Amino acid sequence: MSLGIAARLARRELRGGLKGFRIFLACLVMGVAAIAGIGSIRSGIEAGLAREGAALLGGDAEMEFTYRFASEAERGWMEARALAVSEVADFRSMAVAGEARALTQVKAVDDAYPLVGAVELAPEMPLEQALAGRQGLPGAVLDPLLISQLGVEIGDTFRLGTQDFVLSAALTREPDGAADGFMLGPRSLVRSDDLANSGLLAPGTLYSTKYRLDLPEGADLPALERQAKASFEDSGLRWRDARNGTPGIATFVDRLGAFLILVGLSGLAVGGVGVSSAVRAYLAGKTQVIATLRSLGADQKLIFQIYFLQIGALSALGIVLGVLLGGGVPMLLGPLIRAQLPVPADFALYPAPLAEAAVYGALTALIFTLWPLARTGEVRAATLFRDAMAGARALPPWRYVLITAALTGVLIAVAMLFSGTWTLTLWTAGGVMLALFALALAAAGLRRLARACAPLARGRAAWRWALAAIGAARDEATPVVLSLGLGLTVLAAVGQIDGNLRGAIARDLPDKAPSFFFVDIQKDQVGGFLTRLQGDDQVSRIEHAPMLRGVITKINGQPAKDVAGDHWVLHSDRGVTYAGAQPENTKVTAGEWWGADYTGPPQISFAAEEAAEMGLGLGDNITINILGRDITGTVTSFREVDFSTAGMGFILAMNEAALAGAPHSFIATVYATEAAEAAILNDLTSSYPNITAIRVRDAIDRVSGLLDGIAAATSWGAAATLLTGFLVLIGAAAAGAPARRYEAAVLKTLGATRGRILTSFALRAALLGAGAALVALAAGIAGGWAVMHFVMDTGFAVIWPSALGIVAGGVMATLLAGIGFAWAALNARPVATLRGRE
């Protein structure tokens, strides 16, 4: 019965419009829309990847082998099941044109390529014609960036290894390019047969082969995958198919989307502060209504239900508007977004991300409105005639505290479920709650400090009025510090993480990293290679080692993933080396190294940190598939491997007798002055055309370019959080406008000038903004340090330009909001204001 009365009264009050709830709705709409928009874009990309899976992969399925071509049995298996098979070899090499040299990712194809899609060239021509060449030279097509690096034009010649090619066209679109993942050099496309005399695909060189299958319509992809892996269990085969043609991109999109949604949740938490402030301000404005209801016999339960239903209806409206906005904007801006993406995307209304955003919005609205609603029920009727919140306790009844805590737990659990990254979710939730707690303490400390400092401002009226207002019983500081502070915290943390990542890559890494990686050095070339470098006083250090690639397939006779889980070492093939005597720079942390002349059963030395993560121990047996052959060895030692220097590091090393007979090449790292790099590159690639040189500085530039996109995405997410915080700030300023109008009227009556009153309001806003910004800066720096230290496992330094920008931004934001609403207070006539107050 009481619920029916509450619903009728709530409906009547809502007829008065949305006055007092505009900021409430704006905060909720912004938070929900951000999460719905991010989820919709992610779903659109996933749908595009699924639809174009075959085209992106280059076929319905792909079988990949490391550093070898398929055997006759493997090729026969493929041809028996596919309508067509295309063979692709992929490797890095040096492209040379005159004195110009550039690293390139070479794709060597057969006549069947591409099985799906089309290669686009400039000038337009069929790929077959472009690769046919002219004047006795085979043809090639190059990425426009590589053409620019080499300084060549259409019709010019260049060299790969010892083979000359004629440039026939620029490669403007590669249908299966997205499936290739991150590349250190731009693409070259040539015919496989034309590499026969290049010296680039000699035994032991580093390349992979991919066999794309055009399957009959309706082929059972899961069954074919099982058959292939069962038939060639110990071959090192890797299978992909059109169900997930670009697993690397799909995983990246999923993880980045999950991270951005967690950033969006931080924005929703900021909006929650605004929601809570709006509810408190709304209830304070309903003093006479609530007092009348209490006088007529309404109990606490009925009053709670009336305003719970009102706020629930408005929350539902805000959630619906946020869902429509977040789902509709990607559809409206679909062409613009697609133009910026390197992968296909189908933007439509996807129910899952919209439902996810709605759940987040509903839980946030409940968490942040329950507390002020519960406190209202505790206020006595006589108190309500004076001030709706003045008589309320600091905390509501314990049942509401427990319900709020339970809802917070549900929100975190839902975020863990939706994001799939429970560790990141818990860190984010813990960080947000810790930041809110720190900001609440800071607001209380700011009020106390203002009261303590007010007597020191004697003779400075504007300062004393500002400090007195901040320290007053009327809590104006808390919503400002919480909303603006949390938004600035997210922005500060993102800025510090991005700045430190860029610093580690662009500043610190080159100081520790080698100048070059050289790969594909044949055994008979090692002597001459070292002779050239050892005689150069600009070269400070050289490291070289034999290099093979292998896939860890079993641990103690069981599938490796069943023992070590989804550890990154098992995701792909890994570098494997061998040695006789223990190398000078190798530090064994457990066990013993085999002797220099050891020829017994294979022994393994494993990287200590990764071994601990995988649960390996001394005496364990590991099976590695190398060039299609299984080699099982026993772990006899662990050693320290430091990957942070970008130098030479192998997860797995074996005794020399276990691997020396397998075809392989050598790799080397060279540390030299930057001035000597050009001469080293020219001399070595001229003397040994098959050797590939990877200049570390160029690799850093490509990684930095990738970071630009990630940083832009996270910055937009943080900016949305900050915008929500600014809306909350406006709401807090609007809620305090009547108090400022009354304050200005009293001061004018006592003889204060408009300029001095405005200065007081500006000082109040600036001090609150500075307080919020300083706390946010400390929290953001702490969050950035935690991510760099615990997640990235690297050093941390405060990025002061970003830090100072955060403080300046906080001061400016509060100044703009405070002065904007203070102007109306200054223009109000004191007589009318004071009479209205009476």
Task: Walk me through the structure.
- By secondary structure, this protein is α+β, with helices and mostly antiparallel strands.
- Among the domains are: 61-218, no CATH class; 443-512 and 697-838, no CATH class; 539-672, no CATH class.
- It is 55% helix and 17% strand.
- It is built from 27 helices and 21 strands.
- Strands 2-3-8-5-7-6 form a six-stranded mixed beta barrel.
- A hairpin with a 2-residue loop joins strand 6 and strand 7.
- The chain is elongated.
- The two termini are 39 Å apart.
Number of strands: 21
Average pLDDT score: 81
Content-based structural category? alpha+beta
Q: Approximately how much helix is present in the residues?
A: 55-70%
**What separation lies between the terminal Cα atoms?**
39 Å
Estimate the global geometry from the Cα principal axes. Answer: elongated
Strand content: 15-25%
What ranges have pLDDT less than 50 throughout 5 or more consecutive residues?
A: 387-391
Alpha-carbon Rg, integer: 34 Å
* Contiguous helical run count: 27
Summarize the biggest pleated sheet: 6 strands, mixed, barrel
Output the strand order for the largest sheet: 2-3-8-5-7-6
Membrane topology: Multi-pass membrane protein
Protein name: FtsX-like permease family protein
Subcellular location: Cell membrane
Keywords: Cell membrane, Membrane, Transmembrane, Transmembrane helix
